[in-house]
Amino acid sequence: MILPIVSYGDPVLRSKTKEIPEDFPGLSDLIDSMWETMYKANGVGLAAPQISKSLRLFLVDTMSTYEDEEGSGIKKAFINPEILSETGDKWGFEEGCLSIPKIREEVIRKEIVRIKYFDEHFKEFEETYDGMNARVIQHEYDHIEGILFTDHLKPLKKRLLRSKLDAISKGKIEIDYKMKFPK
Ligand code: NI
């Protein structure tokens, strides 16, 4: 089922997310719906708060971003994840977000991330990622911590974006996927 993606300005994007118990009802249906919603919007990641669920869950599919690059993409659901460390050099990349359509800005992040999480079968993993995999994981992990990529921008850049962000929160934007606006 395709779910509406909540836009910038919705309080759910800033809420404190809850851990998911193993017997959480409808978890596999929820994950299926999130994949469907993410692909419909051409996203490479989607976090539960973006579909109005204040839960510690996000999806990442970086397969397409590695087509012409070295390394290999991942397609995974991350449940109750915990970033254990972020290391390596800092690097910048123009990020976007399905909740903040049509804005892309350079965000500086560390290269390598070590993360502990459960998959959709509640098997526990501890893994290290770099490159675009790490970048997308960091962006989605931010979502479940109530952080948006625009929070990482310098104050001047943020000020320049304010009216655009305000327009998005009011739904004054053309998009080709289903969204929900707070105002
Ligand atoms: Ni995002």
Task: Describe the secondary-structure layout.
Blueprint: E1 5-6, H1 27-40, E2 45-47, E3 57-61, E4 75-97, E5 100-118, E6 124-129, H2 131-144, H3 155-169, E7 179-180
Nickel (II) ion binds next to helix 2.
What do these coordinates show?
The chain is of the alpha+beta class. It has a single domain, classed as Peptide Deformylase, CATH 3.90.45.10. Helices cover 23% and strands 33% of the residues. It contains 3 helices and 7 strands, in the order βαβββββααβ. The strands form 2 sheets. Strands 2-3-4-5-6 form a 5-stranded antiparallel sheet, sandwiched between helices. Strands 1-7 form a two-stranded parallel sheet. A hairpin with a 5-residue loop joins strand 5 and strand 6. The longest helix is centred in the last third of the chain and has 15 residues. The site of nickel (II) ion has 5 residues, from helix 2.
- Within CATH, the superfamily carries the name Peptide deformylase
Overall strand count: 7
Number of continuous helical runs: 3
Helix/strand class? alpha+beta
- What percent of residues adopt helix (DSSP H or I)? 10-25%
CATH architecture term: Alpha-Beta Complex
**Could you tell me how far the N terminus lies from the C terminus, measured between alpha carbons in angstroms?**
24 Å
Overall domain count: 1
Biggest sheet character: 5 strands, antiparallel
User: In the CATH hierarchy, what is the class?
Assistant: Alpha Beta
The ligands bound in this entry are: nickel (II) ion
Question: What name is given to the CATH topology?
Answer: Peptide Deformylase
